[in-house]
Sequence to fold (195 residues):
Amino acid sequence: MLYYRYKIVILEKGSNIMLTEEFLNKIKQITGLSGIVMVLLGLLIVFFPGRTALMAAALVGCGFIVSGLFHIYSIFSLKNEKGTIKALYLLLGILYLIVGFFALVNLFAATASLFMIIGLIVGFTWLTEGFIQLMSASQFESKSWIIFSALISIVAGIIFLMSPLMSAVVLWNFLGWTFLLFGAFKLVQYFGNKI
Fold:
């Protein structure tokens, strides 16, 4: 017979769930491990932003190559499909391979391109969000905060669209500091909680 010590966790008013000490220890271990990984990633991004950006571009390039190989491999498993579908899968696989190959051959260009795309997407998203907030501001009681938030979104979106590469570099550094901060919080949580 197995005996477990249980801890009662209250999720919401009136509902209790009993969790084993073993399960809580697993959660604590995962929290500590993810904290270490986040701190390490944060340190790498903060202190070596260029190298980590190149590594990210290399991972994207490798992802394209793997995807291309899977598309080409999948042609052989499509026994009942028409030749057109197989040809399209072959073409798609070759395109993925070409993009992945060029990304790995010139990592600097791939990194700059990746950052440009991210900067443009974020800029367009913030600009759109700002205009949507402005249009919907009349629906809320506290319009001033929504209008203020909308104007900040619009200005940030315009800045990102005008200089997507530099904006993405700022986001990359912000990501590093965010990883560092959240990783530190997770480690404090790991060492501070006793089960």
